[in-house]
Amino acid sequence: MSKVREWLTAYGFIAPAMIAILLISVYPLVFGVSIAFTDMSVFNYLSHGYKFIGFANFSEMLTDPETWILTYRTVIWTVINVFLHVSLGIAFAMLLSKPWLKLKPIFRLILILPWAIPSFISIQVWHAMFNEQFGAINQLLTMIGFHAIPWLTSPTWAFLAVIITNVWLGVPFMMLIALGGLNSIPEEIQEAAYVDGASPWQTTRYIILPLLLRTMVPAIVLGIIWTFNKFDVIYLITQGGPQTVVTLAGHQKVMGATDLLITKIYKTAFQYPNSWGAASALGYLVFLVLLAMSLLNLQIQNFVKE
Amino acid sequence: MALKQKPSWFEVFYTYALIIIACLAVLFPIYWIFTTSLRPFDILSTPKLELWPKGATISNYVNIFKDKNFYMAFMNSVKISVLATILGVVLATLAAYAFSRFEFPGKGPFYYYYLISQMFPSVVGLIPLFVIFLRIGLLSETPFLGIARVHWGLIIIYGAGGLAFSVWNMKGFFDAIPKELDEAAMIDGAGSFTIFWRIILPLATPGIAITALFIFMGAWLEFVTAMTFLSNPKLYTLPLWINLSISNPFGIPWAKFAAASLVIAVPVTLLFLFLQRYLLSGLLRGAIK
Predict the structure, then answer these.
(1) By the 8 A CB rule, do A112 and B273 touch?
(2) Which of A31, A251, B172, B176 is the most exposed place for a label (fewest CB within 10 A)?
(3) pTM score, two decimals?
């Protein structure tokens, strides 16, 4: 087959998928940029009453202290979650890899269940379990002599509740990635370390762990992106609440104690004030932050390889 | 891990202890939802945790299937998920074949596209999609070919939205089929599409089945898009029906919620457990090489 013919054949096979991607992903992405420069909202869209307002959405967003509180909170949320996902994932992968462990397939099956259950359902179950009066968690706590915890009404406890849920959901994925990574590390390396007199702890700490982390980098980058944009856990359990009054630069403001950037974007667009322009502007901020982070990571990886 | 060292009793103890604690943490919510689904009262009014509910009954399961709204949501979800799956599989299979077999300009950037598409918050993409669909009438409830236009909108989003992943996944299956087969057929005078349709596709059936199931499961309990696009309860999908039924101001019907959740989740969970190794092989392939 000539080169040009090969290209044309390939494009023929790809065309339907490309058209779909252009229509569903790329065009909205570009169109979304233009929305961010308007005051478009659900009220003025149909009457074409919206207009171009330049960088007003962006300047308003960047000068609103709430944006920075949400950014800070989203970063904290991502760091805590990804750290726990990765460290617990690796820990349980290592425990499950011990050659003398009995019932391995059963333990493995149980431990990946949170990943297999549709997350919409498990999030709703956690939501129900955090119910202050009738939730299973407070029932368990009072049974063993603790006080009931105001899971969904106290800002701090609510944040802890969504973190607990998200950790429960996210560890199995990292554990499976770590298990795959452990399998890919040749046994000779461990044997060589053993022959050289390294203790099991030293072998794990200085040989297995660095090799394992390197194989896990793509999964960890994806994990960071997913966690940064995690919407359903927050939205279904706390809806971003409970509402708290925050004093920002001398002004009192009511904001959700567990809102993240992503839930704020959704609320801005589809609840009061239904402002598509402002929500899009905030969305592109998130996109740029993640893009910059990923490019930085790519650079670091290339640097390490060389 | 082939070193034949005998573990110390302490190592054995903490290994089993930690694994069992983790298993309990995983199983507790599942145990709770199961026992709740057997509760005889429709409102979770027991302030105490019971190991096994008094008067356990399967009536909640029976009632679910008698509930007209549940049935309607169930049929809506089936319809949307099945059509989205067909759409997604056709698009992904064709594209993945090209990525597996041909060299062409623009092949490289597609891989970056996958990562970038993950970074763009799907919630943000919803805004322009909402506006575009509103403009072209895909948010309206009037039927087209017997299916509400807004359902077609969801079918397109669910079918085409995860294409980057489906193509990536499907390509792995095509890569495993020897290229010599294509070459032999080409020498016999078969065209590219004939080779794809007659020779490669039948061999890739397991891959197609797996890709199809992933698309189906993605659509089955999708929540955010459905919540944003659907306003008429008659057109609701299963997750929206669940959300509506547990936002009952007169007390959440926990037992009903629990039974419905299990009915909806158990088949999908079993499928997923069966399929997860295929899902991971793609990510690991990328990771190890």
Answers:
(1) yes
(2) A251
(3) 0.87
